[in-house]
Each structure stands twice: as C-alpha cells, then as structure tokens.
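Take a look at the protein record below with the fold in mind.
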Amino acid sequence: MPDTAIPAQTAEDNATRVLTVSESAAKRVAFLVANEGNPALMLRLTVSGGGCSGFQYGFGFDDTVNEDDFVFEKNGTKVVTDDASLDLLAGSMLDYVEDLMGAAFQIKNPNATASCGCGNSFAA
C-alpha cells in the first residue's frame, strides 16, 4: 500500500512536500500505539532548533491534528508533522532500524547538509 499524505490544510503547492514512512517504522509505531492503549494516537515528528548540528528531531505521541499539520499514513499507521517541520523534512523517509548498536527511529533526510554521529540532529 503506498504512503498517503492527508494534509490538514489543502494547497496545491504542498503536493511535493512528502514524508515517507517505511514498513518497519509503520510496524513499530503500530506496536507502540497498541501498548499505549489509545488507537487514536499518532507519532508526532517535529524539527526544532538545537542539537549539535543546528536542528534536532523530536518524537512523541499525539491524538490531535492541528490546522497546520500534515498526516502521513502507512498501513493504517499515522505520522503527523507541522508545516514548519515539513519544510525541513520534505522528501525524507522515517525508518525504524534494529542493529547491533540498538533500535531506533531514523530520518533519512535529503535536506540535511551535515548530521551528528548519533543521527538525532542535522544542519540544513
């Protein structure tokens, strides 16, 4: 099933601003939402100033879609981000990776010109 973007606001110029959610990330979010016991929860992905490279990613659960939010869905799992964060996330992929170093959500962001070693912050 392809990723779909459900913008809380509608504008033709937003058509190219997409965040892709990987199969692995969708499964992990669904698992975490199920553990929270609230099926209305979505993963909220934000970008804010800070971190060692200039911007940092933030993850949390939310059950509210604000007027300036965009909702991206994969297999029934929803990821929401605000308009300002989407400016820096457009074209990115949210993935969930498990390896010898541990397990974590990762953002593969084509807008990042540099990132820190841990991958939690970036420069644009």
Q: What stands out?
A: Strands lie at 4-7, 20-21, 42-50, 54-62, 69-74, 77-82, 93-99, 102-108, 114-115, 121-123. Confidence is low (pLDDT under 50) at residues 6-13. The two ends are 31 Å apart (CA to CA). The chain is about 15% helix and 45% strand.
